[in-house]
Amino acid sequence: MTRRVDAFGHEDHELLGAQVRDTVSGKEGVLAAVVVERVRTHCGTRLVRQAYIKDSDGVEWTTSPSQVSPVTPNHSPSLRWAHRAA
Question: Which of 31, 33, 67, 81 has a CB 3.0–4.6 Å from the CB of 52, allowing a cystine?
Fold first, then answer.
């Protein structure tokens, strides 16, 4: 599957806007974004994919997109890219 990334590094993801669980922390919230970011390390910089999740209190945290799972199997697919010109 090819990932679509916009000019800001935001990636299309089937769970955007859905209630999800961070399987590492066990916390739940809404998947707000999946972003490819340039991160500075002691060896220079590297690209990292991060999932941003926001809980009902407005607290946002990041995790690996591979650690995100839907809370219910009946999630709505993202319509983020539906109105873009091909």
Answer: 33
Each residue's pLDDT tens digit, 10-30: 888 899 999 999 999 999 999
Q: What are phi and psi of 60, to 5 degrees?
A: -115, 140
Phi, psi angle pair for 67, to nearest 5°: -100, 15
Residue carrying the six token digits 């340039």: 38
Q: How far is 42 from 15, CA to CA, in rounded Å?
A: 33
Do 33 and 10 meet the contact criterion of CB atoms below 8 Å apart? yes
Bridge partners of 34, per DSSP, are: 51
Answer yes or no: are the C-beta atoms of 4 and 12 closer than 8 Å: yes
SS3 84: coil
The predicted model scores a pTM of 0.72
